[in-house]
Amino acid sequence: MTIDFKFYSGGIVTNTGTGDVNDFYTALKKHEATINTLATSQKPLKIYVGYHGSAGDASSAKGGYSHPFTDVEMQQVEKIADLFQDRVRLIVSQNSPFSDAVVEAAIDEGNAFFTWCYSDSRIRQFFRISNSYND
């Protein structure tokens, strides 16, 4: 399983791959310095979490909703978030994907981390920006 992140202007972060919460944590450690520049107590990084993204098939587009996190996965997410103390805020949706309106508002506000698998495929359709930090 391969998880990696893309960093866009405005403090937008997406997930380009797939994996479990432990894989996500490994990728998070790889990019910890960059994440720490975005996550401050004055402007916490909003982390959109709670479900697995689809790899793309007839029933769901790539980056769409696949299935909710289990209780164990949510506990793992909360432990990871605790490492950042007051510098992150979890925004959770488990039974359905985040709506287009929520995604658009988050992008407009900035400092948002869309964590579900292949979120980059869904989020890019909302961008009004053309470049990322790691392209």
Please explain how this structure is put together.
The structure is a single chain. The chain is of the alpha/beta class and 135 residues long. It has one domain (5-126). 33% of the residues lie in helices and 21% in strands. It is built from 5 helices and 7 strands; from the N terminus they run ββααβββαβαβα. The strands form 2 sheets. A 5-stranded mixed sheet has the order 1-2-7-3-6, sandwiched between helices. The chain has a two-stranded antiparallel sheet with strand order 4-5. β1 and β2 (12-15) form a beta hairpin. The protein is globular, with a radius of gyration of 14 Å.
Keywords:
alpha/beta, 7 strands, five-stranded mixed β-sheet, 135 residues, single chain
What can be said about this structure in brief?
The chain is an alpha/beta fold. 33% of the residues lie in helices and 21% in strands. The chain has one domain.
